[in-house]
Amino acid sequence: MSLPSLVIVPGAWHKPIHFRGLVDELPDVDVHTVTLTSSGDDPATLRDMYADAEVIAQAAAAIDGPVVVLAHSYGGVPTTQPPDTTNQPSDESLRELYDSAPREVKRRTFSFLRG
Question: What are the φ/ψ torsions at residue 55 (nearest 5 degrees)?
Answer without folding.
Answer: -60, -45
